[in-house]
Amino acid sequence: MIWQTSSTGSEDTERLGELLGRRLRGGEVLELRSDLGGGKTTFVRGLVRGAGCHDRVSSPTFTLSRVYKSKDFEIHHFDFYRLSEPGILADQLSEAIDNNQVIVVEWADIVENVLPEERLALQLELTASSPDERLITLTYSEEYRGLVTALETDWKEVEP
Ligand code: ADP
Ligand code: MG
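A: This is the predicted complex of the input protein with adenosine-5'-diphosphate.
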């Protein structure tokens, strides 16, 4: 299943992340795709805030993974950008997959096999019309239908 929308700037992408973050319950697996600078980490910043964590989100490109604690679950944020081998981080990732955690993975290609098939993938693409616009495509399996439908409703309600 697919839902598409667009973002007009980084605040807009953060806002979408925040709305999704508010809806998380624990156990979700989120895959983020884009070119470098597409807005994956920007989205996570909103997501973490929406989930009720007040920690600062920075790109885990150098630290490779970070954990943010919300009231009900932990958000494990991975970034595989610099890795050509999934290595030990893939083990960390598979250990983190359970109902009390939320997994967020930037550059999921090399851990494709580690991620459960049931997941929500979000892709950000630059467009020709503006450097601040992104086409956002959510591709998801059946168990995410309710979450995405709710997100779609929230997103329409807050549309400026
Ligand atoms: P990634 O993690 O995908 O490499 P980042 O989130 O670190 O990307 O960086 C995205 C960059 O693009 C930031 O500098 C941000 O301000 C800028 N930007 C411009 N428009 C948007 C948009 N619509 N959504 C997200 N980021 C945007
Ligand atoms: Mg990033």
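The chain has a mean pLDDT of 91. The longest helix spans residues 10-23.
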